[in-house]
Design brief:
Number of helices of chain A: 8
Largest sheet of chain B: none
Structural class of chain B: mainly alpha
Order of helices and strands of chain A: EEEHEEEHHHHEHEHEEH
Order of helices and strands of chain B: HHHHHHHHHH
Helix content of chain A: 25-40%
Number of strands of chain B: 0
Structural class of chain A: alpha/beta
Oligomer: heterodimer
Shape of chain B: globular
Helix content of chain B: over 70%
Strand content of chain B: under 5%
Distance between the termini of chain A: 40 Å
Largest interface: A-B, 31 and 28 residues
Shape of chain A: globular
Largest sheet of chain A: 6 strands, mixed
Strand order of the largest sheet of chain A: 6-7-8-3-9-10
Radius of gyration of chain B: 22 Å
Radius of gyration of chain A: 18 Å
Chain lengths: ~250, ~260
């Protein structure tokens, strides 16, 4: 079971409230994007789910089990690919599973093949392009046994062209390897193109101020970004974001 | 090939210096017991091989043994200090203090305590070897890229996994830098320890030669020490090349 339920989460650092009574949920195999102004406590939210810190109040439950302060319950893909430079791509891709104690080399090779990384099994990260590194990093989190994947602005460091390629690729591979995904971004179009549901966070202390159900059918074609409907969503979200940040 | 391309300048300078030396000594009428010519030293190196080969072997054995023990101690100390921050805070300053004691003044004490056997000699080599390795390894562990550390934590790695899968391999290039310094120091440490009193070794050969004003042999000893240090250094470089392939282009870059 991969249902994530967060209730009344509060966390402050040095007396500054970063999250206040934040609640959200993600259903099994749902793709949820979190949009928020920078410095809105998105990374704190991730650190809490990842178990790096204990929340001051509230609960985080995954599949019905409380995972407050428990490391290793979710799989994670950071902003930079964070591949270990001394490991071959194959060994890097296996790292997440290795940490959890179950390696499946066959599955890894198959997944690398699907991701267009076959032939690079023995290569080192510095030999790969930015997009390829990110693909390797995403496969690493897919191959980890955890049912929920946290994606922390994974494409923000890529150029526009590679970024849209990567978004399509991500949807493709997710379509055939469904997982629950929590995706943090500050790019409205990216959130609209990828997610089933979008949560908008307020400024500190962060709360969910709005929720948008994105009704585009899957599999999604690139063309939807040019439709009237897409623009309307974009306007609505922009309005909420503007209000939420008080700009 | 690269060595041939880049190495010719220093080699040329070296040859030039030797030629100047060779020409000046007879020109200025310097007696051989004061300063022999490179030619005389070269001949001595070739001719007295049977005299010093035993000494050379003894020094090589001593240096290698000392280097291995010293490096292990150095790595062990670094690991303990890294994994227990309280210990690091306590012992790091003491570690630096320990390096302020000149080995040469410590040596007689060690002889008083441990006699003329192999133990005080090894202790001297260990003392000069462990420090560069400990410092290098500690720095290597601590400079682990924060992004990678963050990923490992988020992915649920425990302290052990973080050390062996992240910090240890990350520190490898630093550790090898420390090893290179330690390898050259180990020869120096061995020679110093042999001065104190030993049956054989380059240090012994050198003391015997200098006390009887056989200056040429003193130069032979210096030449041997230099060669030995260089060979040790080269061996570590080879090992490094063998082990650290991922760093080949000089960039263990954090974005990996």
């Amino acid at each position: 079971m991969a249902e994530l339920v967060i209730e009344q989460l509060t966390k402050s650092f040095d007396g500054i409230e970063v999250l206040k009574e934040l609640s959200l949920h993600i259903q099994e195999d749902e793709f949820v994007a979190v949009l928020g102004p920078s410095g809105s406590g998105k990374s704190t939210l991730f650190h809490l789910i990842g178990g790096l810190y204990e929340p001051d109040e509230g609960t985080i439950a995954l599949g019905g089990d409380k995972i407050n302060g428990q490391k290793g319950s979710v799989s994670y893909m950071p902003q930079s690919p964070s591949l270990l430079p001394w490991r071959s791509i194959l060994d890097n891709v296996l790292l997440g599973a290795e940490l959890a104690g179950r390696k499946d080399k066959e599955a890894a090779l198959e997944m690398m093949d699907k991701a267009g990384l076959s032939g690079y099994e023995r290569a080192y990260p510095h030999q790969l392009s930015g997009g390829m590194k990110q693909r390797a990093a995403f496969i690493r989190s897919l191959l980890s046994p955890q049912p929920l994947i946290l994606l922390d602005e994974p494409f923000s460091a890529l150029d526009e062209f590679t970024r849209s390629e990567m978004q399509k690729w991500l949807l493709d591979i997710w379509q055939s390897n469904k997982r629950s995904i929590l995706f943090v971004t500050h790019n409205i179009e990216e959130a609209l193109f990828l997610a089933d549901r979008i949560l908008v966070l307020s400024e500190k202390p962060a709360q969910v101020v709005a929720e948008f159900q994105v009704e585009f059918t899957r599999p999604r074609a690139e063309g939807i970004t040019l439709t009237e409907e897409f623009l309307q969503y974009k306007k609505d979200i922009y309005k909420v974001l503007k209000k939420g940040t008080g700009v | 090939m690269i060595i041939v391309k880049k190495g010719w300048r220093p080699v040329l300078v070296l040859i030039l210096l030797l030629i100047i030396w060779q020409v000046l000594v007879p020109l200025l009428d310097i007696p051989a017991w004061l300063l022999p010519t490179p030619e005389q030293i070269g001949l001595e190196v070739i001719n007295s091989w049977p005299n010093y080969s035993g000494h050379l072997a003894a020094t090589i054995r001593l240096s290698i043994l000392g280097l291995i023990i010293g490096s292990s101690v150095g790595l062990g100390v670094a690991m303990v200090l890294h994994l227990v921050p309280k210990l690091r805070e306590t012992f790091y300053p003491l570690l630096i203090l320990s390096q302020n004691i000149p080995i040469i003044v410590l040596a007689p004490l060690l002889v008083i305590w441990f006699g003329f056997g192999v133990v005080p000699k090894l202790i001297i080599i260990i003392l000069v070897c462990f420090f560069p390795i400990t410092i290098a390894a500690l720095d290597g562990f601590r400079q682990t890229t924060s992004e990678l550390l963050h990923y490992m934590k988020m992915a649920g790695a425990d302290r052990r996994q973080i050390f062996w899968k992240l910090e240890w391999p990350h520190a490898m290039p630093s550790i090898f830098s420390g090893l290179k310094i330690a390898a050259t120091y180990s020869v120096m440490g061995a020679v110093i320890s042999e001065w104190l009193g030993a049956q054989e070794g380059i240090g012994v050969y050198m003391t015997l030669a200098s006390s009887s004003f056989r200056t040429t042999q003193v130069f032979v000893a210096i030449f041997l020490i230099m060669c030995l240090s260089m060979v040790f250094f080269a061996a570590i470089v080879l090992l490094e090349k063998r082990f650290i392939r991922w760093n080949a282009n000089g960039g263990g870059d954090s974005n990996g």
